[in-house]
Specification:
By secondary structure, this protein is of the alpha/beta class. It is built from 7 helices and 4 strands, in the order H-H-H-E-H-E-H-H-E-E-H. Strands 2-1-3-4 form a 4-stranded parallel beta sheet. Helix 1 runs parallel beside helix 3, helix 2 packs across helix 3 and helix 4 packs across helix 7.
Length: 211
């Protein structure tokens, strides 16, 4: 796969994304910080993506997540929700299922993120289907790299098969969910993995603050 060149600002597409993000975080982060994170997000996604058509859109979404995480670390107003981070190797199956299911069931009680230590080019087959069947929204699912901001902001880090590559940050609550990898599995097995994760989420929700 040939490398996708990283546009240098002022690239008009990234510049428009940077302007939107800078407006959203006005008073919190400078334009230079936003631009730097956006360009870095684009570069990281471009390194592994198999489909590059929507990279600018995905880079903006990843940058928004990183900025929100930084705001949480810095104690910005409105950033006080508990944050749960799911980490697996490729961020293409298990961690995507877990993040979407928790987001669906938590109903705004927590902020949810997922990432991979070595992100895959695309989401694994059947993930979108089994999430839709469960009533969860699969549209936000795309493999994302693990970034310092998101790890530092997490209150709970749940690892799912990333082994020694999983992040360790002092003071965090860590859980390890030994869930099978859905990579290459038939749809009935992927449904079983989804249901396993959903049962674990029931226990997780019971352990979280009510507000």
């Amino acid at each position: 796969m040939s490398a996708v060149p990283t546009p240098a600002l002022p690239d008009e597409r990234l510049a428009a994304s940077a302007a939107r993000l800078a407006t959203r975080h006005a008073g919190g982060f400078g334009v230079e910080t936003v631009q730097s994170l956006l360009t870095d997000s684009y570069r990281r996604l471009a390194e592994t993506a198999s489909v590059t058509t929507h990279l600018v859109v995905l880079a903006e979404r990843l940058t928004a997540e990183r900025l929100d995480a930084l705001a949480h670390v810095h104690g910005a107003p409105g950033s006080g929700l508990s944050r749960v981070l799911f980490v697996c190797s490729h961020n293409a199956g298990r961690s995507q299922l877990a993040a979407a299911l928790l987001q669906h069931r938590a109903q705004g009680r927590v902020t949810v993120s997922s990432a991979g230590t070595h992100p895959a080019p695309e989401i694994e087959p059947y993930i979108e289907q089994v999430l839709t069947e469960a009533g969860a929204d699969p549209t936000a699912a795309f493999p994302k790299p693990l970034t310092d901001e998101v790890v530092s902001a997490a209150d709970i880090v749940i690892t799912m098969g990333c082994g020694d590559a999983c992040p360790i940050v002092p003071g965090r609550r860590y859980l390890d969910w030994p869930v099978p990898d859905p990579d290459g599995a038939p749809i009935n097995v992927v449904r079983e993995i989804r249901d396993d994760i959903n049962a674990r989420i029931t226990k997780l929700l019971a352990s979280l603050p009510s507000t």
